[in-house]
Amino acid sequence: MRQFRPIPPEFNLGETLARRVFQIREFRNMTRKDLSRYSRLKEEKIEDIEAGVETWLSVVERQLLAKALSIEPILLQEVETRPNLGAETMYALEIELGKKILEGKTVLECPKCGGTLNCRVEQGYDIQGNVIKMAKAYCTSCAYTLR
Ligand SMILES: [Zn+2]
User: In terms of pTM, does the model score above 0.85?
Assistant: First the structure.
């Protein structure tokens, strides 16, 4: 089991994902190859992250990377940026999201920020008065809501 000391509070963490991953990796005396091995992410992926090409991690990637770097995932998440999604992409994502919620999935990712969504199925009525099920969700990290 690898034991790491915590990141000291005076450590001046960068404001981008690229910078942070690089800084913490160096602080841990790891090469990119080491980090790739510990995190099980491809070395090219690590390179892209540190080059600022990848500015956004999936929940799983973030967890693996944070674990390998021995830090809290929030330290990465708070500096991740997602390229702005077009309205069409967002619409497609929401359709998918709605389907999953109605299928009973409760652990879902916010399409805006990747945070945890709080999901539920609500009963409503359509214009003919028929009972319909509606997917509702709100993000626990940003202002996103699905209605
Ligand atoms: Zn969100």
Answer: no
